[in-house]
Amino acid sequence: MSRKNNIFSNCSSKLESGVAILGAAISLPVIILAIFVVFDLTRIYLGIVFTQDVALTAAKLANASSQNVDTPTAYNLIKPAPGEDAAITVMRQDTWDSLINPGDPDYHGAAYFTAKELRVFNLAYGYMAQLNPNIAFPIPVGTRVLGGVPNCTILMTFADLVGAIDLTYNYSRIYTVKCSVPTLVLNLLPYSVGADGYMLVTRSAYSHQSGGLTP
Amino acid sequence: MKRTNKNDHGIVLVEFALAFSLLLIIILGFAQLYMVSLDKVDHFALATQVLMGPQEKSVSYDSATGIFSALDGSTSPTSDEFYDTVGNFFLSRVPSDKFALYLLSGYLLIDPATGFVLDLEMDAVPKSYAGVNSTGCTNVVGPNHRTGRFAANRLDLMKVWAQSQQPTPADPENDDGRVGVKIYDFKLGSTRYRQYQDVMPFLFMVICTKPVNISFTTNVYTYQMVVPRRNLN
C-alpha cells in the first residue's frame, strides 16, 4: 500500500514540475515581449519630445535677428552613423540637393538657401547633436540602412511663398523635423513607417516673418 | 471548511484573477498617462508657436486724448479681430481636429503718472476656437469657467503683488511697484518725469484636448499666460 502511495506521489510531483515548466515556457516570451514593447514606447516618446524640441528651437532661431555663427555650405552639415559606408554618406549629401531641386518632393520652395537659413540649419543641427551625440543626419535618401542609430532631417518650407519670389517680402517658414527612431518590436506592426526597424516621427514649428529671400 | 485540493485550486484561481485585474488596471493607467503626456507636448508646442506667431495690436491708442485703452468692439483692431488672428493661427497649426482653444484678454490698469497698478480688467466671456472633432471639450461648460478663473487668479496675483511693492510713504525716486509699459522717464533739473501706458495687456489661453481613452475618460487642459508680442506697433 505504501509502495502504491509512493508511485502516486512520484507521478504527481513529476506532473506538477511539467506544468510549471510549461507555464514558464509560455509566460517567459510574453514577459520579454512586454518589456521590449515598453522599451520601444519609451523610445518613441523620447523621440517625439526630442523632435518637437528641435523643431521649436529651429523656429525660434529663425525668428532671432542675427545668428553669430559661421555660414556653412549645406554639404558640411552631415553627421554619418559610426562605421557607415561612404556610399550612404553620399546619399546624405544628396538629401541637401533634394531640398533645392524644384523637381524633388522635398523641394523647399527656392533653388538656394540664404546665408541666414544656412546659419539656422547650422545651429539647429548643432543643437540636435548636442542633445543626442549618437544621432546621424540628415536621413539619407534612397536607402534603409541607417546604422542602428536615430537619423533625423530638418526640413524647411515657406508658409506664404506663392508664385515668384519677392525679394522685399518677409517670409514665414515652417521647420519640420523628421526622425527615424530605432525600435525592437513595434516596427513589426502594420502602421509603422520608415525604414525597417525604425519608426518615423515628424513634428513641425512655425516661424513667423523670419526673413527675406535675398541670396 | 475542510481544506481540500479543490479548495486550494479555487483559491489560487481567485488570487490569480485579482492579481491579473490589478495588473491590467495599472497597465491601462500608465497607458492613459502616456497618451495624456503626448497631448501635453503638443499643447506646449502650440502655445510656443502662438507666442511667436501673427498677432494684432493688443492695446488701442487715442491720439486726441493720449490715452491707451483695452480693445473692445469699437477699437481698431477690435477685440474679436485680435482673438481671431490668434485663434485662426492656432487652428492652422494643430496636428489634428480634436484641439480646442479658449482665449481671454486681461489688463492691469496702470496710473500713467506713477506706474502703479490701480485695478484689473478682463473681458467677460472667453472666445473659443475648436476643431471639428473637439466635442469632448466644447460640449462641456468647464473650459469657459476654467479660462475665466485662470485669468482672474493670475491678474489678481499680479495686482496684489505689485501693490504690495509700492513704497509708503510715496517716494518719487523709488522704482519699486512701478510696473507697466514705460513711455518715458527722465529728469529735468531736480524733477523726475515719468509716463506709463494706461493698460498692460495679457492674453490667457486654455488649450483642451480629449486624448484616446484607454482606461478612464479625461480631458487634458493646459493653461498659458502670454504677454502679447505686439503692443501698439
Structure description:
- The complex is a heterodimer of chains A (215) and B (233).
- Helices cover 43% and strands 13% of the residues of chain A.
- Chain A has helices at 2-63, 86-99, 115-131; strands at 151-158, 173-182, 198-207.
- Chain A has a three-stranded antiparallel β-sheet, with helices on one face.
- In chain A, α1 packs antiparallel against α3.
- Chain A starts with a helix and ends in an 8-residue tail after the last strand.
- In chain B, β6 (182-188) and β7 form a beta hairpin.
- In chain B, 39% of the residues lie in helices and 25% in strands.
- Classes of the chains: A alpha+beta (215), B alpha+beta (233).
- At the A-B interface, α1 and β3 of A face α1 of B.
The ordered H/E elements of chain B are: HEEHEEEHHEEEE
Structural category of chain A: alpha+beta
Give the helices and strands of chain A as they follow along the chain. HHHEEE
Give the biggest sheet of chain A: 3 strands, antiparallel
Short description:
The complex is a heterodimer of chains A (215) and B (233). Chain A has 3 helices and 3 strands, in the order H-H-H-E-E-E. Chain A is α+β, with helices and mostly antiparallel strands and 215 residues long.
